[in-house]
Amino acid sequence: MQDSNNKIKIQQFINSYWSIVIIILLTPLLLCSVLPILPTHDDWAGTTKPDFNPFFIKEHFFFYGYHWRPFDTWIGYIVGRNPQVLWPAFNHILVVIGHLICSLAVYKLLTVLQFNKTARNISTLFFFITPATMATVSAIDSQNQVYALVCDIIAFLLYIKLKRGKYIVWISLIFLATLFKENGLMWAWICPILAYGFDFIDKKIFKKDLIIGMAIMAGYALAILLLPKDITIHPEYVPEDFKMINNIVKFFFSSFITVDYIYLLHQPSRQLVLAACSFLLAAPFLYFVFIHKIKLFANKKMICTFICLIIAVAPHIGTVFSMMHVYAALAMITTIIAYSINCIEHIKPVAIAFVLWIVTALLIDIHLIDSSIKSGLIGKQMAQEAIQKTGEPVKHVYVIIIEDDYPKLSSFCVIPYEAFGWGLAAQYETNYQWPETIEDTTIDRSNDALKTAMKLGLETLNKQQYDCIWIVDHEHIDVVKR
Fold it and tell me: What predicted TM-score, i.e. pTM, was given to this entire model?
């Protein structure tokens, strides 16, 4: 009798939380899949790479370049204790665990917003496996994006639940999210807008809390100005009209359309038939959740959700947008999907379409992760070639890069010299024993580019205190020594 009751309870649990069960089962597989991904591009430049600076708190913790992300700095310090073992495995573990926690938080969010069981489960599983998350989940330096959203969702849940201490908790969690990544600050407005849209607060409290949200933003801006560091704005972060339009198009495409981006957008890998197949298989589900009930979106709940969606992604639309930045808006996209499914009376066609979407999404995810692994391996092979041709440890290296016209796609398909980290991958391969310093320059590609690079390399050796020159020509490394 007791065994029968236990079986019934287990069945009821699975029936209510089947998406959570699937996500928990998929998480170890996801982690094993991303662990082989090696550093490329921004991974070599950020503060989550191994940091050996004894003054890292003074120089990096409070401000670094144009960021205030102290948790990134701590990660860099931790992996710097044993780079060959911890980096990038430790980073991948943090990201995948964070994505799992975020998925659980999304399920709780949809529960609190009172969507039905089917809507909650389908939308949560969508959040976990959608290819729109892969640029974040497969990245090495994206734990800031993941944990900022975790803190923000928890902030909203406590914002609408607590009566005493509500504002202290809300403000603290928003500030904590912002210390992970700056776009976490946007929930200072998202929380009251979403709460008002779903009738958790009235108009009077809504207006008051919007003002408090603005005060939170102003407080953060003041803190930035008072930090003991000069703020240097990277040119890519300067808003421009054309760039913003381009970013909006990229955001819409990568957020609301499921397709194999590599087969569609990456010219060397382009397979339009396969890209079309991936889109057609996913299209029925996308139709059901974004188009089928679109007339029902003209209500207070969805209008407020769309406003929150725009606010969440606004910092990236206005500056730099890449596929990993979709993550900031995915909680709102998931809410829209849950609302749409909640309004559908006959769920069977949606369920069939969702199964097709799952198969397609998983195949795309596998392709994206595999391409990321291959990109990282290119950098590793280039580093090993540079070390082998150098022959012996050297202290100071000058890297001459022949500009590469090889097309890139986010962090999945990167330019070889970016995978090489402008030479920094070689430091990693020697466990940071040598070279001590690496400087680089880039020259234009031409028919005589290699000769020009050789000439520049010899001149540099004669004039400067470098031990050797590494010339990077696509995936090939030439070494010029004294």
Answer: 0.93
